[in-house]
Amino acid sequence: MRDYRWLHEYCLNRFGSAKALEARLPQPRTDAELRQLPDDRYLSLIALRVFRAGLKHSLVDAKWPAFEEVFFGFDPEKVVLMGAEHLERLMQDARLIRHLGKLKSVPRNAQFVLDVEREKGSFGALIADWPVTDIVGLWKYLAKHGHQLGGLSAPRFLRMVGKDTFIPTDDMVAALKAQDVIDKAPTSQKDLAQVQAAFKQWHAESGRPLCQLSVMLAHTVNH
């Protein structure tokens, strides 16, 4: 596994300047900002991630104002009361993406958000307080307690809300293989722990957030 200095030099050479590199890198939200984000926004982003999975993002995003309307602004207290008959009516609404399984996930995830709120005070408190040194543990928690948040959906949702995380995209997995960190896509706890350890080392060497290291690493794969 190469050190951060190599990663930085590679990306500088690829993009031509430090300014060009920095312009491509995401910036995570602070813990305070994550706590301030209301629970209805977390539920909206969970639902947006679920509906984006397997579909063109621009298609989903264009329809999202209608989703905000029919799901009461994603107020968890209101959404959790939506029963099967209500969801069946939504299946007749041409403004929406009419996928019953995904529509059913919204009130189920509303219950998840409410459960976390009762335990932690807010969903934002859970996200903010979870240490990035165990970010894969947060993926696991979201996949276990949420609905349709398995695979890459949990880390992609976290990136959407601004929680610092890496995402094992195809490019990043290829780069990690080239660095001899893993030899296959990381799905086992062992492989995920190895990836987490590699990012912990690069973070210690650079001070950069995981999301920036993730993007930089993905750019080391030649296309």
UniProtKB/TrEMBL annotation:
InterPro entries named in the record: Adenine_glyco, DNA-3mA_glycosylase, DNA_glycosylase
Top-level taxon of origin: Bacteria
PANTHER family per UniProt: BLR0857 PROTEIN, DNA-3-METHYLADENINE GLYCOSYLASE 1
Protein name, as recorded: DNA-3-methyladenine glycosylase I
